[in-house]
Amino acid sequence: MGAPFPVIDKYDTTKRMxxxxxKRTRSIRYREIAADLRGxxxxxxxxxxxxxxxxxxxxxxxDTSRVTVRKxxxxxxxxxxxxxxxxxxxxVAVDPLRQSLGRLGTIEAQLAASSRTSERDVYAFGFKAAPxxxxxxxxxxxxxxxxxxxxxxxxxxARVTVWAPQDLxxxxxxxQVEASPFYEVLDVELGGATQTIGAAVVADDDAARLDIPxxxxxxxxxxxxxxTDDRPVLVSEHVFPAHLTEFxxxxxxxxxxxxxxxxxxxxxx
Length: 269
Fold this sequence. Notes:
Blueprint: H1 10-43, H2 55-62, H3 66-78, E1 82-85, E2 89-92, E3 97-100, H4 107-113, E4 118-129, H5 132-138, E5 142-152, E6 155-165, H6 166-169, H7 174-179, H8 182-185, E7 190-201, H9 204-210, E8 217-227, E9 232-241, E10 245-248
Parallel strand pairs: 3-10
Antiparallel strand pairs: 1-2, 4-5, 5-6, 6-9, 7-8, 8-9
Helix pairs in contact: 1-3, 2-3
């Protein structure tokens, strides 16, 4: 007698075919999602540097798993369209603006040097009681407080709050600070500044102004600018989405020293 015909397990075969169809479907699905997102990016609906919806949000939008969404995003990353950073999520790829710490300058000047279009959006202007820490620096109970957003190529780039002592601020108009940086309209000769940079997570109000998710990493820069007599004349706080900028400091070789000029360790005690 010949060898018996093999017994075919119809249930196992059906299950295997279903699994293969499921794999093909997932493969097609992540490419479809990638194509959809690519179309939004190329149409400008999601601009350079703008944060994409979270993986969880995209999973709900496309009614699929986060694994499939992540595979679609990784496909776009391989094509150089998107990037990601820990804590910042996924965003449309953009070269971060490199800001030099070697000279006293403005955001507008840094953007212009990088061929970015710069805009100013002043949302607050008025005299008020100085915050305690600002009063201690400026020695002024009343200050002019100006809040603004800086935009780069039409997208939010920084939130800036500037405080000037009353005797200097009373000579300034809202129109002036909407049109030009403080350094150009302040009626005093500037000497220099001290700037402190730290990392933080964005608060709710800044998240809305900067169009980034609450809890995203930001760089917070506090600058105290003095006149030529070493009197503090401006205090400013700059908040930057961490994926949009980076600060660069030159490290000249100085014999007998291992510490770069201008950098200090923070005393956490």
